[in-house]
Amino acid sequence: MTETxxxxxxxxxxxxxxxxxxxxxxxxxxIFAGVWAIFGHGNVAGVGEALYQVRExxxxxxxxxxxxxxxxxxxxxxxxxxxxFMAATxxxxxxxxxxxxxxxxxxxxxxxxxxxxxxxxxxxxxxxxLQQVESFxxxxxxxxxxxxxxxxxxxxxxxxEQIIPAxxxxxxxxxxxxxxxxxxxxxxxxxxxxxxxxxxxFFAERVWEPRRPRPDVRxxxxxxxxxxxxxxxxxxxxGGVLYSEAAATLQAFAEKHGIPVMETNAGKxxxxxxxxxxxxxxxxxxxxxxxxxAEQADVVLAVGSRLQDFTTGSWALxxxxxxxxxxxxxxxxxAGKHRALPLVADARAGLEGLEEGLDGWKSPDNWVSKAxxxxxxxxxAAKAVTDPTNALPSDAQVIGAVHRAxxxxxxxxxxxxxxxxxxxxxxxxxxxxxxxxEYGYSTMGYEIAGGLGVKLARPDDDVxxxxxxGSYMMMNSEIATSVMLGVKLTIxxxxxxxxxxxxxxxxxxxxxxxxxxxxxxxxxLLPEIDFAAHAASMGAVARKAASIAxxxxxxxxxxxxxxxSVIVIDTDPLISTEAGGHWWDVAVPEVSPRPTVxxxxxxxxxxxxxxRLVS
Length: 615
Known about the structure:
This protein is an alpha/beta fold. 37% of the residues lie in helices and 19% in strands. The strands form five sheets. A six-stranded parallel β-sheet has the order 5-4-6-7-9-8, sandwiched between helices. Helix 16 packs across helix 17 and helix 16 (395-406) runs parallel beside helix 23 (548-558). The longest helix has 22 residues, at 365-386. It starts with a strand and ends in a 7-residue tail after the last helix.
């Protein structure tokens, strides 16, 4: 007879989560590092009580914003190279829909997170319950259906026993290298509290270790043949290199075969910045070295990259006639993009397989010499823009100051706006994972919450969050959470009084300065926001730096602070690094009464003619 235990659905959920394990560096650890929770009537009685019962094995963290807590959970998974992850639970209604943006972020970036929003009553007795969104034409729909397109797996739990297959499927998705992404289990609030006789075997400890799919023999031979015939090969290192823990394998492969490496935002830090074959960033925010080589490349080996438009310069970057792309990726969807030769495999296993098939082949010496000369030129250009001047500082000069004060051992965190482009070009990343950018979904507001998740995953790292005033204003509440948890961050706020990045894009496409910088918006009074005072009010140590020199001093002083430090500096909204970079497809109006827009349209049409359009 099967042994059972009577538990509520929520108790079964939390008990199951606490029994899932993984192995890191030979040590068995819980695969769920904890649960972020903001309680409301839709989860406090069910999930809240269940979490209380397992609070020692499965820690619960209280946040200030549902979207932010999900960002923190996602950042934890990214910083853990997807080996461990977290969950986030909210009440029904706005608490749940606040997490939809975070779900989209995780979906785009292929990052695991378990989302547990409360839902309506399955029995429908109190309909419409508080915060219920009613569909006039479908009684089965709730607001949580908004999670469906941004979840790798979605389920609505309307009976307590349904949690058994749902959790099994959830774990398979969360730990799968190809299907990895957000899982949403929508928890009807009455069902959370309903009991069932669960089999004891459901709660047996299970160890999940990463699957490393090997490449298909035929695909491997096609890819190896393409590389053996290359005169000007390059490697694009994407996030999959880091998630596969393949950085050392990639470095050895590049060195043995003389192939320059360029990095996406997700893949940056795959090789140390100072490695002679690391050409730096690629694409729209690329270094001059990477983009020069990419334009001439005859074979592009894309490792663990989804090849989005910033990486490919909207598919206008690769200009050589007959250029071939080899897509080494665990997910066929990504491996076969734009008629690439697919090599479906784990990044490390795929590189090891290619190694066997290349049989001592190496790229021509003159190609490697060209790469090293191009990198030397780029480093000079990068130094010129990061060195301090007496002018109102640029983002690049702030980046230079942060690096001089904290060095490449620091882990830098950022997202969206102009800063990611500058950091992608200019930040000298050290160890794998020391560069943490959310640029897949380009989510303003991720930065501070993301920094919190990174620090929880890597408590010994010096975590430096760089954030613009626009993103800070969108989401800053987790400063208070970091202070409350004793999780120390260094946060550098660059105040250019508006959305400087989009203002520059507006100007570049012929537009008028309109509705981006405060001075160009409809206003009666221009705000003078005291970000230092605001951060101090949430418990942080706050400083305002009047110059680059003061910023460097403040960064040094902040190392001794016993809690999160926030340093604010005014910056110039109009300056960005012109060196490097590439065209990006931002559609310009065909018809306008303004000559500047018409001129921009002509340039846009010229650029379209050279784009490499393939299906």
